Amino acid sequence: MGGSFFNRILVPSSSADPCSRACRVALLICCCLSVLVESSLGSKTRHFKWEVEYMYWSPDCVEGVVLGINGQFPGPTIRARAGDIVNVELKNKLTTEGVVIHWHGIRQQGTPWADGTASISQCVINPGETFVYRFKVERAGTYFYHGHYGMQRSAGLYGSLIVDVAKGEKEPFHYDGEFDILLSDWWHESVHEQELGLSSKPFRWIGEPQTLLMNGRGQYNCSLAAHYSNSSSSQCMFRGNEQCAPQILRVIPNKIYRLRVTSSTSLASLNLQISNHKMVLVEADGNYLQPFAVDDMDIYSGESYSVLFTTDQNPSNNYWVSVSVRGRKPNTTQALTMLNYHNTTSASKPPPSPPPVAPLWNNYTHSKLFTKKVLALMGNPNPPPTTHHRRIILLNTQNYIDGYTKWAINNISLVLPATPYLGSIKYNLNNAFDHKTPPANFPSNYDVMKQAQNPNSTYGSGVYMLSFNTTVDIILQNANALAVNTSEIHPWHLHGHDFWVLGYGEGKFSNENDEKSFNLKNPPYRNTAVVFPFGWTALRFVANNPGVWAFHCHIEPHLHMGMGVVFAEGVRRLGKIPNEVLTCGLTGKMFLNNKND
Amino acid sequence: MGGSFFNRILVPSSSADPCSRACRVALLICCCLSVLVESSLGSKTRHFKWEVEYMYWSPDCVEGVVLGINGQFPGPTIRARAGDIVNVELKNKLTTEGVVIHWHGIRQQGTPWADGTASISQCVINPGETFVYRFKVERAGTYFYHGHYGMQRSAGLYGSLIVDVAKGEKEPFHYDGEFDILLSDWWHESVHEQELGLSSKPFRWIGEPQTLLMNGRGQYNCSLAAHYSNSSSSQCMFRGNEQCAPQILRVIPNKIYRLRVTSSTSLASLNLQISNHKMVLVEADGNYLQPFAVDDMDIYSGESYSVLFTTDQNPSNNYWVSVSVRGRKPNTTQALTMLNYHNTTSASKPPPSPPPVAPLWNNYTHSKLFTKKVLALMGNPNPPPTTHHRRIILLNTQNYIDGYTKWAINNISLVLPATPYLGSIKYNLNNAFDHKTPPANFPSNYDVMKQAQNPNSTYGSGVYMLSFNTTVDIILQNANALAVNTSEIHPWHLHGHDFWVLGYGEGKFSNENDEKSFNLKNPPYRNTAVVFPFGWTALRFVANNPGVWAFHCHIEPHLHMGMGVVFAEGVRRLGKIPNEVLTCGLTGKMFLNNKND
């Protein structure tokens, strides 16, 4: 090869002492941003000082605008140990937009106001203002953080959050090195225009992403594998310092590596492969899995996994790491980078064969097979064996409301109020949101296989009030969308809890029959679960975390179009909610009127 | 002609009973939005209910995104009588951006919190929230309103505000009909990107506007006069219902019409002509002028004028109404519409000759000649004849600060704080802004004719504290910008007051000599005054309006780059400031901490 075509190296961290190594790297990068304060108990407070602003950036070799943190895209990685306190002082440097950050997968026990959900857990941070997120990371695992206001996540406001096991603790598996890959999708149209199109009549869909990104890097107008294809795309040539140059995974032979994979995609469901290398899944959303090996793995928006792979292949070759779209007719080229046995092979040598071909986008059998292999490792907390205390069935439909295209749950399309629920529920502000409880089921004669006909769909801001400490079963029921023979993938994410995924099924959920199939032995425990087209997914969780929690489709445009619900539990048990999270809307007015405090 | 090429008609309102006619029309348009409540004194409260949101729109026949009000662009016209109360209930329907509206030219005596300036008079209205602007329009005149947060004015957030004389009062001139024309300029790049470019290193200038708009209508990819030019632009063909179809001024012969012209441009200084028709200027910024006749008139951003013209030309022809760029090398086609003698000539007949040619863009002699003709009508309030009580000299320079391109006043580039000054001054919040008084002069050896060399420029948020009821003289001193032999036009606008324009001069202002040339007899009384390249402009006003008031260059990117100062006077005299304008920043925190109220 003339010039090297990818030579940006991602250096693994060693697992022998995962934190000391990883944290040293993290500290080198953001030396003056992260300060460690060790407590007498061994847990630390990790201080970060962040500024959010728009920046010109070329995530896919085409210049656009991203929402960055401290001049970085994606934002800086947070690395901590289980039991640590994370303290992020977040300054909004945007000119006219508010901002919040959600810590995806962190349960915020005792700190529901730090969940970073606009209109739910806090008022947004206004331009020029600073807010301190302070919360405990109680459990080791692979997490991420992202904007949760408007579609700011789609604009690039995200980053990794990795929690290592507490000092003296061990993971239930061995590995020699680690890579973190945060996956996302990228559009050339600005997020402001995307939001407008989705809210317009006639509706304008955002379309498929222009590019898939790995750690914020992708290639739109060139390909790393152009020499193999008969396409017109040209071969990418990188010096290595380009914002879109791929990060190469640099390994040495006969070692075990842990790959932490997280998906912050706005829309795309993804499939990941490393050519010639088996992957063994060991963690999902911060919970250990019964290890299982695959050639390719699916990952939906909001999910995270740890996979182990062994560098047992011919070390004089390089190997493709490839990410492709699933569940939507792909219009986006696969994302590529390379596994490089760096002491034997040059990083500029292209792999000997073309990138792996992904499973067919609509091969749902393949996807379901994978998803059903995801099971908890023995010893994980088990679901309460008793009968559930409450069952809520949530029908997911696409709807027209006044001619606007929306998503609705049991015929209600979520519109978030100006006052955060956490405050309006705590202080009994009756006008802050719809006080009628949203329906917990849908008409029994609804045909989930036929085109949506929901003339009575409405907007709503109601809340499912959950009795504290009860067990709640959720059935997510998919259905045909507005177009004929169409039903989409929806990965649902629950804030403030993990849930057990009791099962997946086809067609309409049946109380009598389907409940029998629930896996109560080793269901995966996680915060995000996919609902397959025309199918249902059954979840169980314990409402034991005082606060108000979003539960929503993690596809950003779907949430923007109303695809979510809100749960509240034990809000009265909360001590004082920090006033500064409630300075807006009716709670703000309440403070002004001095009726409380 | 085949199809009619412009047939959208602007119907004049009659002056015989200007309000009854005009208001009936206004009411017809926004019937359910505007409600009149008559008081026992004859003055009325005029109620408006507005929602601000982004909309797809084609202001210049190219689709883009505008900030609209109630689905209209420009926003609805407010029409009231002197002495009325205007009550606008403004709902922010944006997803992530705050919003405010400034009522340009309305002095807000007794209601400084209704001035609609983010960070100065109020906290922004957050998404989903509603704020009520309520203020008195004490004086007849031609005004407008616009966004005053980030660059939301450039995004299209503006509209007309016309105040007729009180019942029983008469204007000092006669007219038979009226047209209102709000001028603006339009870019195809989104305002979010414009803001980012201006704040980036390296600096990215917004460039010249793609199109000039009259009442929000212009033509980018076609011309109304293509058949006269040898350009490649095609002839515009309109059905008439296009968003970019020009509004034709429909007149009948031998009448006098009042044309109210307002400029809300982001950047462009403009020149307006009506071919073959003399224009007589009679009002500027709500104050009557000594009438004078011109063939063409200049108008700078932030200014408004009323001109009279008589329909005394051949009624079997149509005539061009034309608007062109001044003071910057024009890269933007002139805006065109037509004067149509409608009972004798078809509106689709093109004028017999090409559109008028504007004065050369850099013919400043022509501009100064026009500007110096603008003098107050006898009987207008005169400036206090005594010596000024305080003189503040404001040097306008272009600067680099940490490599960022900025504008600065006496070496300080304005950065607005998160807490509105109105609250932080009233409640003595010392950390809310810079408490050092900004300089009232610049070094005497500064050479205004040479390239700016200001290595010590800084950001600042200081305030000029004015003693209540004192007379203040302001000298706006222009200078060479960063490029050699370059000095730009800056139209400065003062909130909360009108000022007398005492004079204009060349080069550096000299206390000894130039003061003698001040016009104390009939200086124009207005709220916006231009500073010519390499020149100075002298203003006088009385600091008799308790509040905090912006004084800034009305060129939107210049203000965004720091070209403004802040005055405060008599804040302690204010009674209670409505709490809801102070719910953000340190005043918000103060309310939370319950130390006041």
From TrEMBL, chains A, B:
A single Gene Ontology CC annotation of this entry is: extracellular region
Q: Which GO terms describe its molecular function?
A: copper ion binding; L-ascorbate oxidase activity
Q: Which CDD domains match?
A: CuRO_1_AAO, CuRO_3_AAO
Q: Does the keyword Secreted apply?
A: yes
Q: Which Gene3D superfamilies match?
A: Cupredoxins - blue copper proteins
Pfam families xrefs? Cu-oxidase, Cu-oxidase_2, Cu-oxidase_3
Q: Briefly state the protein's biological role.
A: May be involved in a redox system involving ascorbic acid.
What protein name is recorded for this chain?
L-ascorbate oxidase
* Species annotation: Camellia sinensis
